[in-house]
User: Fold these one by one.
Assistant:
Number 1:
Amino acid sequence: MASIAQKSALIICGDYMEDYEVMVPYVLLQSLGVRVDCVSPNKRPGDKCFTAVHDFMGFELYTELPGHFFTLNSDFNLVKPESYDALIVPGGRFTELLSDDDKVLKIVNIFAEADKPIFTSCHSQILLAAAGILKSKKCTAFTSLKPVIELAGGVWWEEPGVSSVRDITATVKDGNLISSIGWPGHGEYLKLLLHSIGAKVSRTRENSVLFICADYVEDYEINVPFRALQGLGCRVDAVSPTKTVAETCVTAIHDDEGGQICSEKRGHNFYVNANWSDVCVDKYDCIVFPGGRSPELLVSDEKVISLVKEFAEKGKVIAGIGQGQWVLAAAGVLKGKKCASSRGMKVIVKLAGGEVGESIEEGCVSHGKLVTATGWLALTDFVSQLSGVLGLSVVF
């Protein structure tokens, strides 16, 4: 969907960085052909970072839970800041450690001196303070960072009217510094990220995408494409048959922790932003079913199956990730279609008449208006292919 982009971004990572705040920009940029180098002091390419889920779960302060493992792809010691177009630092507790790392602060200062965009979120604004580049700059962050920003000479900005996580939408830009309170504001954050590196999004129409979810939907598989498509300017709605606007679906983190099958941990809360009763197929170009365990619930709901069939009858785009193919199989839309399938879904896909070849067992496959991916490891290709099928293109 993108032109060959001679663009690159550097993400400085560390243990217990916020899960969404590293994965969402990483996937979107890679899906557009941008080279994204992920590094961490004292770690090598191929090493993993622990990530953290930060969300409010009924207590005075956010809860921290273990997230997915994130694999680094570049060497911190070989970083040449002048070779990148943007710097991204996710939030999380690791930034407190990095704020005392002279090598990290030197990188931040080189980006600042070159007037290249620096993106921070949640707690990573502490690096801007430590690097001494906040003076007279407007900045936002998680509220506990307000005194830090002000002590560093920055101008604190807080989004008005925020009473819950779902109200957070704003990202603040002051010169080359772009700051966000955290992952709930990723829609605007991603638009500014793309603009800052010269991306121009074009489309044949105003695109609208509908996600179907329920409790224990896979954390990455619902949120990453949801936010990425928002960043590309799509209208994106998420509904659940049994929930209404502002209610949440608990998500599940499925990851390889050395067992014969993936482990499961609790993930973020995902906010439904539309009502099932208001869904009209004619308003949408595409329907997406993320994986996790939620498809086991959705596959038994006749309303859901009927909705998929109506999308198919009207020639709309239909997409599934991981276990999401279970619902597509039940709706009869896989017959004669090439499908990407994980090992665990292969039998179901084949029984439904889908074609799973060895060459397409991993990754993402498009066949006409059907787009399928094996799971969250294939999200970069999924976002790229789905965007292309929807008629979106990006040039730099």
Number 2:
Amino acid sequence: MLNFPLDKKKKHVTKCHVTHGKMSHLDPKQIPIKKKPFSAILRHKFIQRIELVIPEELYVTIEEKFFTKHHTSPNYCRVIIPLLALLERDFFNEYIKKGLSSIFVVPFLFPSSPLFFTDSVCFLVGNILMLSEGRIGAENVYLLKDGKLSLHLDKQSYESAGLVGKPENDKAERYLKNRWLVEIDLRCPSMQHGKKGFDRIVYAFENVLKNPVTWLFCDLGSSNLVSDPLDKHFPVKKTAIPQVTRDVIVQIPSLKPPIATDPEFNTDFYYYAMELHEWFSLVMLDSPRINKDDEIDPVLSRYSPPGQTSVARLVKVVWRGFIPPPWIHRLFVEVFLATPREQWFTINVCGFPETVLGESKDSMILKPANKSREYVLWETI
């Protein structure tokens, strides 16, 4: 393999950080959020795809709990509105300002499960996620999370809007791509109709950033409002229904991490993490290179699964849509607690593209088959 020199001037180089550790005892009522691997899931702003890879025998065990009518899939909607609609009194007060004072208790994902707790997760009423269409770095894109509105603008739109922002790119690239980022905390006490700073934002949305755009909208509270401010914009409601692929017969390598006491642990773990990440990537791409009966001319492909392999039957479950990170956080804990210690599973979380090249933040977590609470985490940033 050729080793091309790294361009040190480019700071936005995709990197993959690998963490190998053990989790402490998991209390479903007090799930960790700051420790890995849980923090790796919650650090995502917006998630478009979840991939769960499990052995066939494990799927048979947990199918009734997770993939039947009792399972609550994440809901979201697609709506076409201008930026100004976010500042309308009904929408602004219900979905943004109310998040400061009210708390809504969300039930557990699987009400029929013995692990059901009504006091497990709390979300703020009015806490919503919104993402507009477009490519960051090439078009004007708007994001709303935790009451903070981020506007990714080109130079002309930024100067015409008259809002205070900062360069989106590094100083070395500022003159190559004139992109600007404006961040507005709509939950700030000064953000009220009639205030001078707020009226400046309204003016920019009325006269400059006035074109309607397509948004993905997700209400984390999932509150049933008598009069939903979004209904007058005729949103298209959607549900991220899991797609199950069974009878995937593959050649699987050893998933057991190397022992830390070995003298060659650093080298062994480096190749273990690299080769296993590549193998799981091929599983999620439905590549025939890992199939049991794969035969291909070595001129076209020289890939083979690493180390000693065995034949296994896998099941792949995929969710696609506009999925909130807290939902995936809870799903991971549910699957982990329901999985016997002698079984393994992998969950892969893919975010939306965050650069003009389509790069996104991904996280993959492997729970190996052993009696300890080991995990291996790959974070692509």
Number 3:
Amino acid sequence: MHNSCTFRSLDIRSGHNVPSLRLRQAIALKVSRLHRMRLSAIPVPSPTTTHAYGPGYEEAYSLLGTSLSTTTWGSWLPNATSISATDTDDLYGQAAWSSLWVQADLANYTSVGLYTTTVEPTPVPSSELVLPPRDYFGPTDCYTFPEDFLFGVAASAAQIEGAIALEGRGPTLMEKLIRGDRPTNYITNENYFLYKQDLQRLAAMGVKYYSFSIPWSRILPFTVPGSPVNQEAIKHYDDLINYTLELGMVPVVTMIHFDSPLYFLKDSNMSATPDIGYNNGGYWHPEFVESFVNYGKILLTHFADRVPVWTTFNEPLLYAFNFTGIDNVVRAHAELYHYYHDVLNGTGKVGFKLNDNFGVPKNPENATEVDAANRFNEMQLGGFGNPLCLGEQYPQSLLDTLPGAQPLTDEDLAYVSNTTDFFGIDPYTATVISVPAEGIESCARQNLSTNPLYPYCVTQEQTNIYGWNIGYRSESYVYITPTYLRSYLSYLWNTWRKPVLIGEFGFPIHDEASRDLPDQLFDSPRSAYYLSYLSETLKAIWEDGVHVMGAFAWSFMDNWEFGDYASQFGLQVVNRTSQERFYKKSFFDMVDFVGARGGLGHDH
């Protein structure tokens, strides 16, 4: 058996050999010494230059091709039941906005949290930045991250912002998704008002890239083209982006992260059984493409000059609901890509981000199970990857299985082809795939109401052929499967030939939420997850020639997990009463690992 330091291989992207054995041994020694020499985290340095990735607002607005009106609406407060506004003749006035919330009919909306205005930040005390004890065992790789590698942390608006009906935001699917007594998204982490302090805490840890989402319903409470833009929302995200840059960090924006405006679902049954995915995100709606493209153009008009990386859709398959939803996502994404690069002449990157717990055959020597795993992966990824990366048709498995599925025309394929700058993926874990007793074809002729295996029609489990779990188990579906990650990255790169961006990866430790604070903070299993995944990512880059563009850890703090606070993915603990944040050991370990290997984008 060889240590990875003894390998020599070719970096396919650059054509150069990887660092020599002697150099990599020196790097390994440096990695070991760095942690012993430093006592605390090193913050992101203040910026010395500025970059423009697209035209400023005035020029971008002139290219928009339509006029925008702006206004403000105020807030819908807890326990409100009636509309006091009198501007009932205004289609988009205060009364009309209030009626959106009356129709939403929120359950148990009794508090907005601790804050109603932006909180000014305070410096992070040095006592919070002291390095924790190291774990005895750790990665032994000697590779460094490429100079252009994007390392950062991620979160989504619905899961951390709160303030759901304040400052003009309109209702979304998220407010109706959770039923019963489960936790809602009404307050969460109050990041909408605490964003400056949260950014201070990230910068103090040396994090360079901050990936977040902007809610469509904050920018356009009435959703559709021609409706007014929320002036308070534009001001808020303008300040968030500027403050990120002021701290020496770089913003990465996702346009939609599951939080579809409720507009698309007002006349539909949200509990209807989907053909594919988990929930009805309204992507199938006849007005969705035009409305989403309009919303995306508004974001780009205001922020394209300062944001270098854009993700149009987060894990769209999960909320696609049916084939039309998939098709609409492909068309909307392609149109925004063309607008960014062809109209705005943006120099940044536009891509998408998909879900797929990498399907691996239970018996790799069984051709039938290999085919089943390929079906599982291509049905989740190929519906977007084939047309947008390669200009190729939807996978035959999708066309044969989903009701109403239609192939793209040659004209459509020409338009959507090669309209992504990266292939975003959230590779949390792997899934073991085998063929069900009834076979795949019989299942594919049914639906989810009659067969729980539909539409993938394979058996999914987490034990290998020998009966072992595939990895250490978490609170939820995630298992620690780093070697499968390396295979997965190669699969993505070699199949769709686009730089791979790990948009999310993280680990919720079993029963962590019930532990005392010191035990939550000393989260060694999460450190093992992050360091092993990053170590295998380095091997994929240097030994397999995979172009991995970057990796964003999920999440930078414990957050609302869609009706749940027990599954804690965060790098910080959040006190749900005081909204205090506390760094976990894994945050230090991960940043230290990346920084020692040159991946923070600044001296470490």
Number 4:
Amino acid sequence: MVSLFLPLLERVGLIILLANLLMISPFYKGLMYERSSTKVSWILILTFSIFAIISNFTGVLVGQELGLDSGGLLNLSAHTSIANTRTLTIGMSGLIGGPFVGFFVGLISGLVRWLQGGSAPYTYFISSLLIGLLSGLVGKLSLKNNRYPQVWQGSLCGALMEIVQMLCILCFIPNKAQAWSLIQLIALPMVFVNALGTGIFLSIILGTLRQEESTKAIQTHDVLELANTTLPFFRQGLTEESAQKAALEIKKFMRVSAVSVTNRHSILAHVGAASDHHIPTKEIITDLSKQVIESGEIHVVRQKSQIGCSHPDCPLEAAIVVPLFVRKKVVGSFKLYFTDAESLTYVEEQLASGLGNIFSS
């Protein structure tokens, strides 16, 4: 039993590393704020299913004599089981995405585990479904309030989900003596490791989001100050002079590569990267700006091709384009450009939207 702790901790470390890498990504940070949408649910299902499958194939074999084995994990013999972190990933999927996500992650990872074979593999299919649903119901309580479980709640849930798996082993493996011996060997290490891993996984998510919120609060203060500085310029009307002054102030306050202001037809000001061809007094040259002015909706793009600049050496890779309204009619736009798409985060999107509301009248 003790010999299982270190190998299982190594497997948990792999999953935690993957979780950390995901939360570095602005894309996944944004998803964590929109968990209730169907699109995000399917992305979470795909992500956690991959994690769970990795867990299946990086487990620790427990052989016929109920000792650690070094055999393969693709086609298990009839008297072989796996001690792995599948329960952790299924449980986390439910805690984050609710029962819908938890069920499908449990279904997919359970099927993969069944196909691996071993001793009564259907047992792990059943336990995977139950764990996905039960953890999802716990996650739903937090999801309704648009928050996450606390770390201790996640750890407790992780331990309980592993206990559910132990009960399934006891109930569904025909050879009760073998089932009980297996539980005696793996229960304590797996309950402990699952609780620890779930807590760490949740703490990574919560820590990342708290940092994001802290950054947002700081930037909100800056934006309010920025609004006080730039609003008088926009109140003068969309002229080249007022647009240039406003663009300079926005560029100074926000961490963007360039700022541009347009009316419905031409560029009034452009400050920062790509100033050599985004030239004031010229007609609007990006398809993206034209789309925003026509639709009256904010557009956020993270690919150079989506900006639609015809200049071959344009360094701009991402943009937020916000329409400007006067009496509910679009009169122009202001644009925040980024030369590195990774710099465009959820925080910048929200701040740009807020600025657009302030600048419009």
